[in-house]
Amino acid sequence: MIKKEHFTLLLLAFVSYGIYRLYEPFWMNIVIAILLAISTYHIQAGFVTLLRSRFWASMFSTLLLAALFFAPLGYFLFHFSVLLQNLDPASVNTFQSTFRGWMEHLPPSLARFEAKIEASLNRLDTAALAQHAIDYASQIGSFAMSFLSGAIFILIFYFIAHYYGKEIFEFFKRSTHFPQQESTLILFEMRSSMSVVFYSILVTAVFEGALFGVAVGYMGYNGLLFGIMYGFASLIPVVGGVVMWLPFALYELSLGNTQNALFISLYTVIVISVIADTFIKPFIIKIINQKLIKPQEKINELIIFFAIIAGLATFGFWGMIIGPAITVLFLTLLRITEAQRQEGENR
């Protein structure tokens, strides 16, 4: 005869599978929202202290996330789609002709690449390229709509995570009988580590994107659009900024604007990559962390660096949040296991 406890567990497992299938389309959004809520706990706590209302604090935290993170990305996707739709084949022809001119003056060390480059240029069909650009613009537009719907759900779950987060966490601990000390340690480690990751991402995107946007705006381009593009590109480790300033420099060279090409190259390398990224950004992040995070909370930056790379490679854009979260959770569980083993040996 089946015991009542066993029947309840069996029923719980069956219903849990049903819950998983029911909310399967939203699990990624829910996970991202929870991780973002954990990362911005200190901002939420500041709003609660200021407004004396958890509802309005959660609302302002959600609006701030939307304004700083989702609105710029949506703006970029929309305008980049329009930019591709209005791609001028004449500018492609100009760049192609200029590039052929450069090939005539290649140094001897690069002469062996001339045949391959020439073959690639001969295969370049500007009319087909314009058509492909329209197709890509349509795909980006579809992605933008999908991203917008996903962003709305993330913001909804983000609000819920902030507003009901404490009750949900306490209910989870009671239901699973998870030890108080271990659950507190996991939440503490996740909160501190994810906060550092989130603030680093935010400062990098906003600060470096603003610097690049000012430069290209001075050259006559849409500084807001390309600043946002550079901000998100800068999140790609090692080669992030290069994918933005190098095409700008080559395009300006193709137009004969050597001074503009030299300016954007030197400005990005010296001002953004060296001065801002190496010296100013760590100082800003240090100040933010000292104000929002307890000084004794440390994080191994090298581990987080590789966690971001692995996350981007595995999960795409949101991997920069998911990768560090999985890594921090794994290391925290290892620490708990080690502590429990040592406690058992000391008995």
General description of the model:
- It is globular, with a radius of gyration of 25 Å.
- It is mostly helical.
- The chain contains 13 helices and no strands.
- It has helices at residues 4-22, 27-39, 41-51, 54-85, 89-103, 114-122, 126-176, 180-218, 223-233, 242-254, 258-292, 301-315, 319-346.
- The model has no long low-confidence stretch (mean pLDDT 75).
Q: What structural keywords apply?
A:
347 residues; mainly alpha; 13 helices
Main beta sheet, described? none
What is the alpha-carbon Rg in Å?
A: 25 Å
Helix and strand succession?
Answer: HHHHHHHHHHHHH
Please work out how many helical segments DSSP would assign: 13
Structural class by sheet pairing and helices: mainly alpha
Number of DSSP E strands: 0
Helix proportion of residues, in percent?
over 70%
**Terminal Cα separation, in Å?**
39 Å
Strand content: under 5%
Total of domains: 2
What is the 3D form?
A: globular
- Average pLDDT over all residues: 75
Report low-confidence residues grouped into runs of 5 or more.
none
